[in-house]
Amino acid sequence: MGTDGIVVIDTGPSRQYAEQQREAIARISPLPIMRVYITHAHPDHFLGNQAYPLDTLAALPATNAAIRANGDALADNLYRLVGGWMIGTQALAPFIDVSTGALQVAGRSLRLIGQAGHSDGDLMVYDETTQTLFTGDLVFFGRAPTTPNADVRVWLETLDRVDQLNFKTLVPGHGPLVHDHTAIAQTRDYLRWLDGVLRGRRIAAST
Fold this sequence. Notes:
- The protein is an alpha/beta fold and 207 residues long.
- The chain has a single domain (6-206), classed as 4-Layer Sandwich (Metallo-beta-lactamase, Chain A).
- Helix content is 37%, strand content 23%.
- The protein is built from 5 helices and 9 strands; from the N terminus they run E-H-E-H-E-H-E-E-E-E-E-H-E-H.
- Helix 2 links the parallel strand 2 (33-37) and strand 3.
- Helix 4 (152-162) runs antiparallel to helix 5.
- The longest helix is centred in the C-terminal third of the chain and has 25 residues, at 182-206.
- Mean pLDDT is 93; it is low at 203-207.
């Protein structure tokens, strides 16, 4: 929350979820929603976009392209999985393409950091005042990282860069927030294990 409005990061897996999210925000502050950043193009992070004004939705160009290409199929899949919880949900790609760098939004000083690895476009949002880093699904904590669109080697390289950032609080894509680098190390350890397993199987299959 800034002095002029609210910044939201990710809208969740359905329209119903995001409407409840907006209700929760309204209980905290009457300020308007100024910007909604979508961290990447996985359905649990963007399928609530309909609940927000179109002119607030923003993401990396790669994320917007992926949602336009695959969003309907991802929504259909969740309809099959959870049924009524998805009623009224349609895939909606953000209209705003963002680039990396510092900016002022809603009276807050933010830094947008574009990376890749978990997907083709992974946006992190860093709040300069509180030194809070929102990593999206580049970092998991106490959860097994998902890899449907991952490039594990690129992801590991990205985590090395994330590890160099100066933050007081890290908000992972899944799992509780943390005040040190534990979640980064945990995600890295899992990906290294997974990379080793996959490489071992490829070697075994070729012999």
